[in-house]
């Protein structure tokens, strides 16, 4: 396993880029409570199967109406933050 060490400046730049990407993906409406499957896949940059596993393992919040799933935006952001590797000084 390869470990990359980044500076605080690089980390802050990444954080800004991440939130800009989130804003762009959800149409600039940061207060949008739920995302469609396609929006969630784009935000997490993962496969449909991975998203299904996250849902099955109850690692993200969602609701289901009929055959359609919607994913809680804050839950997806929290997942990203939980899995972020912090800067080591």
List keywords for this structure.
89 residues; alpha+beta; single chain
Unreliable stretches (pLDDT < 50, length at least 5) are: none
Beta-strand proportion: 5-15%
Structural shape: globular
The total of helices stands at 4
User: Strands across the major sheet, in which order?
Assistant: 1-3-2
User: Largest sheet, described in full?
Assistant: 3 strands, antiparallel
Overview in brief:
This protein is α+β, with helices and mostly antiparallel strands and 89 residues long.
Question: Helices, strands, pairings?
Answer:
Elements: H1 8-25, E1 34-35, H2 37-44, H3 48-56, E2 62-65, E3 68-72, H4 73-82
Antiparallel strand pairs: 1-3, 2-3
Walkthrough of the structure:
Helix content is 51%, strand content 12%. It is an alpha+beta fold. Strands 1-3-2 form a three-stranded antiparallel β-sheet. The chain is globular, with a radius of gyration of 14 Å. The mean pLDDT is 85.
């Amino acid at each position: 396993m390869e470990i990359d060490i980044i500076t605080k400046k690089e980390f802050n730049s990444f954080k800004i880029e991440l939130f800009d990407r989130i804003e762009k993906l959800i149409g600039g409406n940061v207060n949008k409570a739920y995302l469609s499957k396609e929006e969630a896949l784009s935000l997490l940059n993962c496969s449909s199967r991975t998203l299904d596993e996250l849902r099955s393992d109850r690692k993200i919040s969602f609701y289901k109406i009929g055959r359609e799933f919607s994913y809680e935006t804050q839950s997806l952001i929290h997942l990203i933050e939980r899995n972020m590797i912090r800067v080591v000084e």
